[in-house]
Q: What sequence folds into this?
């Protein structure tokens, strides 16, 4: 016996949305999520000449119906804000279709530009921020507050913490943030859904009176652990491994006294999922220039599996030209550094590290501005690209496909064809202020500038549906 609720996919269905009549097919309504409201309504028993009434805005429904028909937003979508479209898509259960249509194209640094600036409502200068790689959602620390923005960069919540100034932030779970401050001791976990502190971790040692009031410099996390670098007033420092489920300290990596550049607290931490190794680096600039180190830790054994210090003996890097910043490409298992004097970029394969693993990348394009060492250099790897901020300027190094001479050039330690350098910004962009931090998420690049309000959002072109937040 035939199910009375069954329909042929081409059967027509009439909907009365807010007093306006729409006619569509079962297949169109079912093109969204299986358990969406529209999919459920498509199972209405037949025959029924009366249209289904939905008490919602008919103009926005017209946009969303067009989205279900073509997988694209019509030009009329520009009449509505991101918030209005997102709210209605959530009601109908087709948020994933809207997200797909509104997401920017793949991030290509050569073709990227500023599309918006996200500014918190109060204390607009960001002291720290983090983004989610999967969807490009954003959490911004400004003063002692944290503001969250979803995949559409729509503000979802702001909570006030007990800290006066948050300087480190990472996302542990969808609604759980972990925070640190250079002005207050401890690592603190905050639940966004309730806006409350659900736990804190402090580095203490009853046998060592120097370990007190330890503050956090950097945070990273893996599926099961949080890694945080702590430092004390007398410069003792260590990396603590904290269990995510219990918020208890599991182990301690590399306690040291920061009396020299080779022993300072790590300012960058990154967990490498392919190997389970933790990347840690520290860079400082003094009267005699830049100096620092890179260490790779195995948290299972608590041992260093590779390290280098600069300036070193000359065998582990260019003598007299130490790095100003370093970063790691997690996808390609590649380490990058920017030299402080020449401004050159160098790379090393994490799978075959040795005493001197660096290959220096050269770019001979005469149309580009000359690369020189500048006062502030920031490096970040994302989407198999290397983004470098030099004072206010922003450039990208992109891998050249099918580079014939790459293997030969790698052997010589200098590679001219493996990566190509391009400038992302215009002159007016570079004049907005010194770049302090760069981070990627989704198909976006985010950056903040010294003493400038808000977080800049960079996307590649073809994003015709992006609505500016300015």
A:
């Amino acid at each position: 016996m035939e199910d009375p609720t069954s329909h042929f996919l081409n059967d027509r269905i009439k909907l009365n949305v807010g007093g306006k009549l729409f006619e569509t097919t079962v297949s169109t309504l079912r093109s969204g999520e299986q358990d969406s409201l529209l999919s459920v309504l498509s199972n209405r028993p037949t025959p029924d000449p009366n249209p289904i009434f939905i008490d919602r805005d008919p103009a926005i429904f017209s946009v969303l119906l067009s989205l279900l028909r073509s997988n694209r937003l019509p030009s009329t979508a520009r009449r509505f804000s991101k918030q209005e479209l997102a709210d209605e898509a959530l009601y109908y259960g087709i948020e994933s279709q809207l997200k797909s249509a509104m997401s920017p194209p793949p991030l290509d640094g050569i073709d990227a530009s500023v599309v918006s600036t996200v500014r918190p409502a109060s204390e607009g200068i960001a002291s720290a921020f983090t983004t989610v790689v999967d969807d490009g959602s954003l959490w911004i620390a400004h003063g002692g507050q944290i503001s969250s923005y979803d995949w559409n960069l729509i503000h979802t919540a702001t909570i006030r913490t007990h800290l006066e100034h948050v300087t480190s932030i990472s996302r542990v779970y969808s609604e759980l943030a972990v925070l640190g401050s250079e002005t207050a001791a401890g690592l603190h976990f905050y639940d966004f859904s309730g806006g409350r502190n659900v736990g804190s971790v402090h580095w203490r040692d009853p046998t060592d009176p120097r370990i007190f009031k330890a503050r956090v410099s950097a945070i990273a996390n893996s599926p099961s652990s949080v890694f945080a670098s702590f430092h004390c007033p007398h410069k003792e420092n260590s990396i603590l491994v904290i269990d995510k489920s219990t918020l208890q300290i599991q182990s301690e990596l590399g306690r040291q006294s920061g009396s020299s550049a080779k022993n300072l607290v790590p300012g960058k931490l990154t967990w490498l999922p392919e190997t389970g190794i933790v990347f840690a680096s520290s860079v400082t600039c003094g009267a005699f220039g830049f100096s620092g180190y890179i260490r790779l830790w195995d948290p299972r054994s608590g041992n260093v599996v590779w390290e280098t210090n600069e300036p070193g003996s000359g065998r582990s890097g260019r003598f007299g030209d130490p790095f100003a910043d370093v970063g790691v490409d997690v996808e390609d298992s590649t380490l990058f550094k920017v030299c402080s004097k020449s401004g050159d970029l160098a790379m090393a394969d994490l799978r075959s590290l040795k005493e001197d693993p660096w290959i220096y990348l050269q770019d001979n394009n005469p149309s580009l501005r000359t690369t020189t060492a500048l006062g502030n250099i920031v490096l970040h790897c994302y989407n198999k690209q290397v983004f470098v901020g030099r004072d206010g300027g922003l450039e990208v190094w992109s891998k050249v496909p099918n580079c014939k001479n790459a293997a030969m050039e790698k052997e010589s330690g200098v590679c001219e064809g493996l990566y190509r350098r391009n400038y992302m910004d215009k002159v007016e962009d570079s004049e907005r202020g010194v770049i302090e931090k760069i981070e990627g998420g989704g198909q976006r690049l985010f950056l903040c500038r010294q003493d400038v309000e808000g977080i800049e959002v960079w996307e590649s072109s073809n994003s015709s549906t992006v609505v500016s937040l300015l």
Observations:
- The two ends are 59 Å apart (CA to CA).
- Helices lie at 26-29, 37-41, 58-70, 82-92, 95-102, 406-412, 427-430.
- The chain has seven helices and 32 strands.
- The longest strand covers residues 277-286.
